[in-house]
Structure formats: C-alpha cells, structure tokens
Write a structure and sequence with these properties.
The structure is a single chain. By secondary structure, the protein is α/β, with parallel strands linked by helices. Among the domains are: 127 residues, ATPase, nucleotide binding domain (Nucleotidyltransferase, domain 5); 135 residues, 3-Layer(aba) Sandwich (Rossmann fold), CATH 3.40.50; 68 residues, Dna Ligase, domain 1 (2-Layer Sandwich), CATH 3.30.1490. It has a six-stranded mixed beta sheet, with helices on both faces. Strands 11, 12, 13, 16, 19 and 20 form a six-stranded mixed beta sheet that branches. A four-stranded parallel beta sheet has the order 6-5-7-8, sandwiched between helices. The protein is globular, with a radius of gyration of 24 Å.
Length: 513
Amino acid sequence: MIRLGIDVGGTHTDAVVMNDSTVVGTHKAATSTDVATGIVAAAEAVRADCGLPRSAIDAVIIGTTQFTNAIVQRRGLAPVFALRVGAQSTAALPPFCDWPADLRAAVRGGVAMIDGGHEYDGKPIRPLDETALGDAYAALGAARLESLAVCSVFSFVNPAIESRIYAEVRRRSLVPHISLSGELGGVGIHQRENATLLNAALRPMAQQVLAAYRDALKKLGLPARLFISQNDGTLMDAGFAARYPVLTISSGPTNSMRGAAHLTGLADAMVIDVGGTTSDIGMLAGGVPRRSGGEVTVGGVATNFRMPDVLSIGLGGGSKVTPDGRTVGPVSVGHELARRALCFGGDVLTATDVAHASGLASFGSRGRELRLDPGMVRNAMVTIESAFAAAVDRMKITPADLPLIAVGGAAFLVPEKLAGVSRVVRPHYAQVANAVGAAMAKVGAEAEVVYTRGNDNRDTALERARHDATAKAVAAGASRETIEITDVDEVPISYLDEPVVRLRIRAVGEMQL
C-alpha cells in the first residue's frame, strides 16, 4: 500500500511517501498561511520527487494542528448552546463554569439545564422534564446558533435521551451541527461535557477545513481516500473527523513519537521533537507513547481525553535569542524562519543561527557565513542544553539513563550529551518523523461502558464494548475484517454503593480503501 503522510506544524509542513513500512521519499517546506495550499504543495513535491503517478497513492493521511491552534488562539470558534440533562444532581457545576474568561466569551452561546438523565446502570434517575425541554428548544431556536452540545448524565451507558434530543433538533432544523457527549467521552460528566462543547465549537470550522483539504487533493488529481490523525495515534477518515474534530488535538506529538519508534526500532526511550517554535518531549514505553495519567487540559479546559504525556517548551529552531545569549525563546519567528534568520539573510538572531555558527548545522549554499560573538554563542548553547536537560528530567519516571531519540526539523539543536540520557539517537528521516508516524498509523476508535461486578456482568460488558468499539472503528474508516482489540482498561469507580467498574476498549484496524 502506498501512503502519503503529511504533518502540518506551525513552522514546517512535512510530507513522506511510504510503501507499507518503507520510506520512499520525503519533502519539508515552510507552512503556508493558507494551510490547504501548503498541504497540496508538499503532496505534489514529494510525489514528483518519487516519480509516482497520482493514481498510485492509495491513501493520504494528514496530521494537523489547525484545530488545536483554534482553541489555543481563540480563533475560528463557533458559539455553542449547551443543553445539559441532569440538573438535579449537577447544578453546582454549570456548563462553562471553569473555562478561561476569554474562551468562555468566545464559545458560550446559551445554556439550558433540565432534570433527567440516567444512573450508572442505565436506569432513569428521574423523569425527563418535558416542559423544560420544550423551553430549551425555544431558546435554542431564538439564539440562531450553528452548534449545539448535548450532555446527559451517564449518556455513554444509556444514550436514549441524547438520541431523542438529536432527532427532535434535526426535525425542527434548529441548528446544523449537533455534538453528543455520549459519543465523545465516558465517566465524568464535567470533563465529558467540556470535550463536547469544544467539539461543537470546532464543528463549523472543521467542515470548511476538511472540505478544503478534499477539494485541493481532488484538484491535484489524487483520488486517494483522506484520513486525519487522532490524538491516540490512530486515524479517522475525513468525514468522521468533520463530526469529531476535537479528537485531532495533540495528534502531532503522538505522530512524532510513533514515527521515532518506527525509524529506530527502540521500544523504551525518550523522544524529543524539535520544531521551529516548540519542542515536545515524551516517552516511549513498549513502543507506544506513554499516556497521561491525569486530567488533560486543552486551552485551559479540563477534558477526559486519552492523550500522550507530553511536555512542550518554547524552544525551537526559530526561537529568538537575546544579544547576550542567555535567553532563547519562547518567542519565535515561526514559519518565517527561512526568511528572517540571519543565516538566511534576515535580521533576527535565532537558535538556528547559533547552531549554524557553532557548527551543529550546515545549510550549504543557502546558509550565509556568520560572525557571531563567541561568548554569546557559548551562552546560547548552554541555555539551550539546560532547557533540554531540565525537560528530560521532568519527563523521566526512572532514575536509569534512557536513550533520547532526537527528531524534527531542528533536532540539530539537541547536544550529543545530556544529563540523564544514555545516548542521543538521530535516525535517518528524523526531520519528518511526524509524517512517518502519521503515514504508518491504523484506524482506531474507543468505547466505554460500566458494569457491576458479579454474575456474568463482565462478559456482557466486554461483548458490548467490543461491539461498540468495532462499530466506531468501521465508521471511522477501518476495514472490519482487520479489526483487533488492542487495549482493555478496567478501573473501579469510587464512592458508589456497589462495586462498579469502568471498562474502556480500543479497536484498531487497517484502512478501508
């Protein structure tokens, strides 16, 4: 299978062509202001370099930070009406209650809280308040918004209420985009609702962005199916991603770590991906990214996503350097590096200039000879080394020294020796490890259920979770015949009278082309 993997970063857009697990060709270019244009340019360049006809490419996989950036920068987000079912037991924490003020102002379009919902066993808590629900429909219609987020207590166990609301809102044509919490998260109504609200805020933008991707590839003459990277290292097709754009958040670091593992064959190691603006540090355990054990915050909002445990620091190839060399970053020239750095004829002193002057990097005929103050260069290199060493120390969970895999376009900034590191590994194609990780990924999805211990409840719950996860994976673009269950997590739920267990399953399969 011929795959074209593309990873869009803040500074560079990387592309790679892979024939099964073998890298055939690569291309790295500056990210364009119009992201779709940059993707098309990278795709065409790497295809032409490999001499492949357009019809030979079976699938295009894109890892993008556009939706993450929209949340972080508070741009392109749609106002959302929040409808929560379960007011009788959740009124103390209303929707948007813990959001940063600026993000809340951008997204909060209206709130309705009504009685109803289910218990952990799927039985109703109390009857649905039909009068309040009718009032909520009226308020939603009057608000004239594009997006609705519906969150009902334990809806992932019993989706009946959310499904009913979805059908009625559709029948009345009240909003074009509806996000249901039972499809996005599990235990923890507050974090599940937050994830649903973020997803709803991204839906209109996602529809436009992904349509632009498809149209651009179509105009380029690439008939291949389009997939998008998820935050757990798996893929979903573009149609699925248009409905669940929030699942793309933090996919970049995951792609880099998976790409690093593939390129080196190392199963247990630290990974540092040095880009133009930031460096992401994570850990491989058994060949897969170590997952965050705590609450995941996205743009200042608490969610319950399963994401890699990654530390990001404001240090990259485009980081600005002060005249004394004692401060490097976090401000960066970003995608303007090739124009604004001193070594490329610009007027800004960057970390790339320091590396070029110290002999760590060479840009051939493109790079100008620099006569920088040796003292400043030494100070800057010490600053860079100290920042990397501190980040590695924060991410380690063992006193033993581990290999450090250095990838990314500015991996040349990583020194050969760092405290706590046994050796620095620089694999071939390290500069496009993120695109490699995207290209080699499989399609995946998760399902979550709860069950009470005893009798055959666990077997029944396992079968239901397997069925739901498999159905979601197929909807995301997986070939049913290739699907495998790769993860089964069981965690007891505290503070309940009965021994209740949360069961989460992941299904992964090959692309259906």
